[in-house]
Amino acid sequence: MQEKDAANSSEPYLRIERLKKQFGNFWALKDISLKIFPGEFVCFLGPSGCGKTTLLRAIAGLDIQTSGRIFQADKEISNLPASQRDFGIVFQSYALFPNLTVAENVGYGLVSRRMAKVEIATRVADLLRLVGLPDSGPKYPAQLSGGMQQRVALARALALSPGLLLLDEPLSALDARVRAYLRLEIRHLHKRLGVTTIMVTHDQEEALTMADRIVVMNQGVIEQVGTPLQVYREPTSAFVADFVGKTNLLPGIVVKPGLVRYGNMDLSCDVDIQPGPGSDVTLAIRPEDVVVRNVDANAINTFAVRVAEMEFLGSFCRVGLALNGDAKPALLADFSINTVRDLSITEGMQMLVGMPSERIRVFPGAPKLP
Amino acid sequence: MSEIVANAASEVPPTRRRLDRDDWLMRGGVCLMIGILSLTLILPLWWLLSKSFQDQDGAFVGLANYVTYFSTPALFASVWNSLFIASLSTAIVLPLAFIYAYALQRSCMRWKGLFQALALIPILAPSLLPAISLIYLFGNQGFLKEWMFGVDIYGPVGIVISQVFYCFPHALMIMLAALSMADSRLYEAADVLGASKTRVFFTVTLPGAKYGVISAGFVVFTLVMTDFGIAKVIGGRFNVLATDIFKQVIGQQNFEMGAVVGFVLLIPAVVAFLADRIIQGRQVALLSARAVPLTPKPDARRDTGLLLFCALVGSLIFVILAMAVWASFVTRWPYNLTLTLKNYNFGDFGSNGWAAYTNSVELAAWTAVIGTVVIFVGAYLLEKTRSFAAGRAIAQFMAMLPMAVPGLVLGLAYIFFFNAKGNPFGFIYATMAILVVNSITHFYTVSHLTAATALKQLDHEFEAVSASLKVSLLRTMTRVSVPVCLPAVLDISIYLFVNAMTTVSAVIFLYSTDTALASVMIINMDESGFTAAAAAMAVTIVATSAAVKIAHLLITRRLERRTQAWRQR
Fold first, then answer.
1. Do A99 and B467 count as a contact with CB atoms less than 8 A apart?
2. Nearest Cβ partner of B464 from A18, A89, A99?
3. How near does any CA of chain B get to the CA of A363, in Å?
4. Measured between alpha carbons, how far is residue A17 from residues A14, A64, A65, B336, B569 in Å?
5. Is A30 in Cβ contact with B5 (below 8 Å)?
6. How far apart are CA B20 and CA A76, in angstroms?
7. In this complex, how many residue pairs, one in chain A and one in chain B, have their CB atoms less than 8 Å apart?
8. Does A60 contact B475 at a Cβ distance shorter than 8 Å?
């Protein structure tokens, strides 16, 4: 279903069919099917324990699946050991060999290829230049910073020109600044080499900025597959809406198709509402989609609120809005600093806000309490 | 939900990973390890067990031997004697070692290095050394005999004092490790909350070291329970289990009864071992990665008190060591105190002479070299073999078992097994080979744990990376795992060397006239009344162990300097 949205319609490079993985009584992967296309950068995104790393390790052959099939470049690899599959891998811990120099680490796989020494040296130098560490060859990993070590690990993973690059939370051990920089570096590298890449991450920002497509996972199932924009703008479940970005999840009851009652307000929504009238649903709206400028009191989806809390976050304010004279805020809205200044928004102020009907998403079932 | 999935799963055939060359190699290795340990440990123990159910002609007699044993008061009394000696020694060693370790790790006392080195020297000595020293000090011709107020040193008193000396460094090492790490933030928090020093000790320090103390307790108890040399030399007519085995087997040639006593001796050792494993399993890491290491602050009263304590304990250790050294150089105790080297002419006191010493060095060297390779490779196989859970579990059990088997029992088991008719390995009986095999097996577990701990500290993904780079595990092992674990490898080899050099219990049944060993010679010479020569041999062993240990320290230090560039810790 999602594959039609993929960037191209060529044959998939990696095809996963009905993959399941069991640990004791626990199913870490429940019937996963997925296609990944040549040259794509795909992120497996989800909270810890969602099965994303299990899926990656099954693709690598490091922890074989309980059942299900995997095809890579039209060849079935379901039961091949890791040593007979074609991939390069980078781990969160870098896993660099501490007693070997950077050059020896990068050339580790080349040495057993019976390549000439000169050839290896040239290849290693090329790879080190590629990751921006041309002079670090003779150093030991411990003498490099975390970010540099991770780039060495990347060079080592690329040394044998694998068809598939697997990144297992490669940035999680680094501090914020290095992380943001390396994010961009990996992205550039991917553009330049065009190698099909899968990255596992629990950081939604990382996934949104780096991936061509995101695979959102939760409790061993795929919740949604789509481009970052699709996943952010059109989440297909309350879980995705909540996990990727910030979302207001509000309890509602279906009145009739296109109309949902929230509290004592009727909100119209553009999306199809699956459950019939009277069913519990969850309304989702992003804080930045709540509008406050040019709101007409008579328009649909408009209501009066009181500013209960304001949190200053640099370029914008996250504002807690209370309804019906409640003390506690029921709804979060992000207003740019411009808006706050122009409208002189302060705590305790009464105002009108609107929820554009095309921005509201509706999911079956009442919201789960946090 | 999971039920539905489980049902669905049954439709699709399960995936079985195809095995690559590394898998076959590793699994073959694990099977080989199981085979080796079966031959050197399991089968001999099985032979011992079955022997205890047979009469002298080899006919099955059920529990008859056990009935005889437990209904013979002279034999059964040894059980209580052994338990009494072991409990008392443990009760004395634990507080001494704890305070000593506390002084070394948690105070600003002076001369810490000196005290630590002094306290650990006894580990290099055979257990017989303190017993011989005590005979010189308080024995029939001891020059401090009056201090005993008529109490006979030959008996429980002598045994307990010797055991305390012998076990002290073993307990100390465990306590030092247990007290080495502490989170200073806990102490700061306790301080801020106004807790008294005593309360901090009982609520922070002691709980932190609890598992170390318990572990040391089990180690000391087992050591005393199974030690043979001390009771033999200074036990007089006080019988313990270990000497009973010897008497039954060597003295009366009653192998069946020896097997029964051996089995009885195995029980407390196994119980202590299992109890320790269970308790250690409950231990959770008290130190998070963010802990701030504690650095002790000076406290004049505490530091002076601990210094006095260490000085007292240290000088007692020194006196016992020095007594043996002095006695070995004295012409004729106590009549002629002029110094001489004649006690070192071992040829005058037994037919073996210095050959026994060279045999011991040879045994220690072989044990160290072969044992290190076998045990490290075994630990590597157990840590790195993918899946193959059943094989790994069996091998793991076999690797832990030697810890629970007293040396005497293992030695006795070897007599039965390698002497058995039709055993194709019988040819190694009465050779150097059987001594090497026995020593490696006897000291397997501690070495295995050292190797496993070192291997566990390596990044778990090295093997995954190697597989993705199409590099064989064998290459990664030799190129990365072994070099990174080299300090642990050296530790293992030195541990094996020193233990093979000093052990008595495991080899006393297995040496032949060609392969007599220095440690056994000590007992023989002491028995023949050549106590000074026995002391001289004990001193020679200590000197050898110490020299090897110093060489080990120098090599380790050089290695650390050379690999400083890549070693962060």
1. no
2. A89
3. 21
4. 10, 14, 11, 92, 45
5. yes
6. 16
7. 125
8. no
Q: List the single residue in B14, B19, B461 with the smallest CB-CB distance to A81.
A: B19
At B138, is the secondary structure helix, strand, or coil? helix
Residues of A in contact with B484 (CB under 8 A): 97-99
Tell whether B470 lies on the interface with A, counting CB pairs under 8 A.
yes
Q: CB-based contact (8 Å) between B464 and chain A?
A: yes
- Quote the minimal CA–CA distance from B21 to chain A in Å: 9
Q: In B52-155, which residue ranges form alpha helices assigned H by DSSP? A: 64-71, 73-106, 112-120, 128-138
Q: Do A83 and B465 make contact, defined as CB atoms within 8 angstroms?
A: no
pLDDT tens sequence for chain A (370 residues):
344 444 455 789 999 999 999 998 999 999 999 999 999 999 999 999 899 999 999 999 999 999 999 999 999 999 999 999 999 999 998 899 999 999 999 999 998 787 889 999 999 999 999 999 999 999 999 889 999 999 999 999 999 999 999 999 999 888 888 999 999 999 999 999 999 999 999 999 999 999 999 999 999 999 999 999 999 999 999 999 999 988 999 999 998 888 899 888 888 888 776 778 888 899 999 999 999 888 887 888 888 899 999 999 989 999 999 987 788 888 999 999 999 999 989 998 999 999 998 899 999 888 876 5
- Omega before A329 within 30 of 0, i.e. cis: no
What is the rounded radius of gyration, in angstroms, for the C-alpha atoms of chain B?
A: 26
Tokens of A302: 């408009």
CB of B18 within 8 Å of any CB in chain A? yes
| Coil, strand or helix at A242 | helix
Q: How far is A142 from chain B (nearest CA, A)?
A: 6
Cβ distance A83 to B20 less than 8 Å, yes or no, reads yes
Token pair in block for residue A82: 């890791």
Locate all alpha helices (DSSP H) within chain A, ordered by sequence: 52-60, 102-106, 108-111, 117-130, 146-158, 176-193, 204-210, 228-233, 238-243, 337-342
Helices (H), B288-423: 300-329, 354-384, 389-400, 407-419
CA distance A80 to chain B (A): 5
ipTM confidence: 0.83
Estimate to the nearest angstrom the gap between the alpha carbon of B57 and the chain centroid. 36
CA distance B452 to chain A (A): 18
Whether the Cβ atoms of residue A276 and residue A364 lie closer than 8 Å to each other: no
Name the residue facing B5 among A20, A83, A99 (closest C-beta): A20
Centre a 10 Å sphere on the Cβ of residue B347 and count the other Cβ atoms it contains.
Answer: 11
A109:B484 CB<8 A:
no
Cα gap B92→B342, rounded to integer Å: 38
Cβ contacts of residue B294 below 8 Å, gap of 6+? B106, B181, B182, B183, B184, B187
Tokens of A50: 């969602």
As beta bridge partners, residue A281 has A252, A364
Residue B480 and residue A91: Cβ atoms within 8 Å?
Answer: no
Are A267 and A255 in contact by the 8 Å Cβ rule? The answer is: no
Both tokens assigned to A356: 């554009």
**Chain A contact set for B12 (CB, 8 A):** 18, 20, 67-68
**A145-150 contacts, C-beta under 8 A, 24 or more apart:** A145/A178, A146/A94, A146/A173, A146/A174, A146/A175, A146/A178, A147/A174, A147/A178, A147/A181, A147/A182, A149/A94, A149/A96, A150/A90, A150/A94, A150/A174, A150/A182
Q: What is the separation, in whole angstroms, between the first and last Cα of chain B?
A: 48
Looking at residue B226, its amino acid is: T
Q: Give the C-alpha separation, B438 to B417, whole Å.
A: 12
String of DSSP letters for B507-551 = TTTT--STT--HHHHHHHHHHTT-HHHHHHHHHHHHHHHHHHHHH
φ and ψ of B521, to 5 deg:
-60, -35
Comparing CB atoms, the residue among B14, B17, B466 nearest residue A67 is B14
